[in-house]
Write a structure and sequence with these properties.
30% of the residues lie in helices and 27% in strands.
Length: 424
C-alpha cells in the first residue's frame, strides 16, 4: 500500500499498544505453564500472531479477545512440528531451544528478511548438547533430538534473543545449566525483560555478572499477566511532539522493565520535560540540544532518534549501531535514505560504528520514501511527514502490520491526512 501524506500537525490522545517484546515472552511463559493464564492488555500484530501459531503447533491453545488472550498451557507435545515464524526474529530465536527442550523435532520456516537473518549462534551453542540443528545460512532450519543441560556460551554482541531463548528452555531440562555471555553484552535490557517475565511465572534464575545459573526440573506456574504499553512505539509520538505536534499518550508510567523507556531520559537530556500524570504522558519542549548516545541497548529507537536529531541544535551522534544491518531492513542504510530524502544530513562511519546527524532543521522537504518493508522506517516516515513543506509519498506503508497494524488509523484520528494511491 502506497500513501500520499499531506503535512498536518497531529493533536489529541492516543493509546499506544502493548509492548511486543513483553507480549512474546508472556505468551511463551504462559504456554509452558501448568494451567490456564490470562494475558491482559494484548494486541495482535503479525509478529505476535506468528508466535501464537507456533505455540499452538507445539501444543498450547489460545482464546483471543479484544484486549486479552487466554492461554492453555502445553499438556501434550507433538512428535514433529512445522513452525512458521513469518518475519519475526523473536519468534524463531525464542522457540528453537524451546522446541528442543520439549523434544519436538521441528522445521522452522519464515519469509522476508527472516529467511537470511543469522542463526549461527545456535549452531555453535548446541554442539554436544543432545540435539542436531541443521542450518545452512538460510531457512528452513531443522532441529531434532532433546536438548540436554550443561554449560552454554553465547556471544553478547550478536543478539540477546539467543540468550532469551535458552533462558526459556533450560529450566525445563533435567540437570542444572549455566549461560556465560562473552562481552560486550549488548541489548542487555531485553534480557532483563525476559528475567522479569520468567520470575512472574515462577522460574528462578540467578545471575552473577555475565553468567546465568539455571536450575533444572523447574515448572512454569500459571499466572495472569498484564503487559506494559510499548515504549518503542511511544517514541514515535514523543519525537513527533518535538517536531511541533501535540500528542498525549495514555497508559504509560515511568517505572518500566523496557530498555526503550530510555527515550524519556534522552528527551529530558536534550531539554524536553516529560510529564507523567495518572498514566497520561505529555511533553513540554524547553530546548532541543544535540545528543551523543550509545545504541547498543536501544537499537529499535535509532531511526526515530535520527529524525529527532535533525531538528536538534548542533551535531548529534549515535554509536554501536552495526547490528541494525540485520533488522527487517539494513536499518542503517534505510534510515540514512529517509533522512537524506527528507533534506537532512546524515553519515555513517563504519570504522567507529557511529551515525552522525547534522541538526538545525525546522522543516523537512517533500519527497517519496521507501519503507524497505520495515515497520519502524514506515512509522518514522509518517511522523516526519507532519512537518514537511509539501506532500510526502510513503511506499509500502502496510509493513506497519508487523508491530502496529492500526498505526495509520491512529495517525488519521490524530489529524493526519493521507490518501491511498496504490493498494498493491
Amino acid at each position: 500500500m502506497d500513501i500520499k501524506i499531506k503535512p498536518n500537525l497531529l493533536n489529541g490522545e492516543v493509546n499506544v499498544p502493548a509492548s511486543k517484546s513483553i507480549m512474546h515472552r508472556a505468551l511463551i511463559c504462559a504456554s509452558l505453564s501448568n494451567g490456564s493464564c490470562t494475558i491482559s492488555n494484548t494486541y495482535l500484530s503479525e509478529d505476535i500472531k506468528a508466535t501464537i501459531k507456533c505455540l499452538e503447533n507445539l501444543g498450547a491453545s489460545f482464546e483471543v479477545f479484544e484486549d486479552k488472550i487466554k492461554v492453555n498451557g502445553i499438556k501434550h507435545t507433538p512428535k514433529n512440528a512445522i513452525l512458521d515464524c513469518n518475519e519475526s526474529g523473536s519468534t524463531i530465536r525464542f522457540l528453537i531451544p524451546i522446541a528442543m527442550a520439549l523434544g519436538v523435532d521441528s522445521e522452522f520456516i519464515g519469509k522476508g528478511k527472516l529467511v537470511t537473518r543469522p542463526l549461527n549462534t545456535y549452531v555453535e551453542a548446541f554442539q554436544n548438547k543432545g540435539v542436531e540443528f541443521k542450518y545452512n545460512g538460510c531457512l528452513p532450519a531443522f532441529s531434532s533430538g532433546k536438548l540436554t543441560s550443561g554449560n552454554y556460551t553465547i556471544k553478547g554482541n550478536v543478539s540477546s534473543q539467543f540468550i532469551t531463548g535458552l533462558l526459556f528452555a533450560l529450566p525445563l531440562l533435567d540437570g542444572d545449566s549455566t549461560i556465560t555471555v562473552l562481552p560486550p553484552f549488548e541489548s542487555k535490557s531485553y534480557v532483563d525483560i525476559t528475567l522479569s517475565c520468567l520470575k512472574s511465572f515462577g522460574i528462578e534464575i540467578k545471575q552473577d555478572n555475565l553468567t546465568f545459573y539455571i536450575k533444572g526440573n523447574q515448572s512454569y506456574k500459571a499466572t495472569d499477566y498484564y503487559v506494559e504499553s510499548d515504549y518503542s512505539q511511544v517514541a514515535f509520538f514523543l519525537v513527533g511532539n518535538v517536531l511541533g505536534n501535540n500528542i498525549k499518550v495514555k497508559n504509560f508510567y515511568r517505572n518500566s522493565v523496557q530498555g526503550d523507556s530510555a527515550i524519556i531520559d534522552i528527551l529530558e537530556k536534550i531539554g524536553v520535560e516529560c510529564i507523567f500524570d495518572n498514566g497520561i504522558l505529555q511533553t513540554n519542549i524547553k530546548s532541543k540540544n544535540s545528543f551523543d548516545i550509545d545504541a547498543s541497548d536501544i537499537p529499535d529507537l535509532v531511526p526515530i532518534l535520527c529524525v529527532l536529531a535533525s531538528f536538534c541544535d548542533g551535531i548529534s551522534t549515535i554509536s554501536n549501531v552495526y547490528r541494525l544491518k540485520i533488522k527487517e531492513s539494513d536499518r542503517i542504510l534505510s534510515t540514512m535514505d529517509i533522512i537524506k530524502n527528507l533534506g537532512g544530513k546524515i553519515s555513517y562511519d563504519e570504522n567507529s560504528d557511529k551515525v552522525t546527524i547534522y541538526g538545525g532543521l525546522s522543516k523537512f522537504n517533500p519527497c517519496t520514501l521507501k519503507t524497505y518493508n520495515d515497520h519502524r522506517i514506515a512509522m518514522c516516515s509518517a511522523i516526519a511527514s507532519t512537518i514537511c513543506t509539501d506532500d510526502v509519498t510513503v511506499l509500502g506503508a502496510e509493513c506497519v502490520n508487523k508491530s502496529y497494524p492500526t498505526f495509520f488509523e491512529v495517525f488519521k484520528n490524530l489529524g493526519g491526512a493521507y490518501d491511498v494511491i496504490n493498494v498493491e
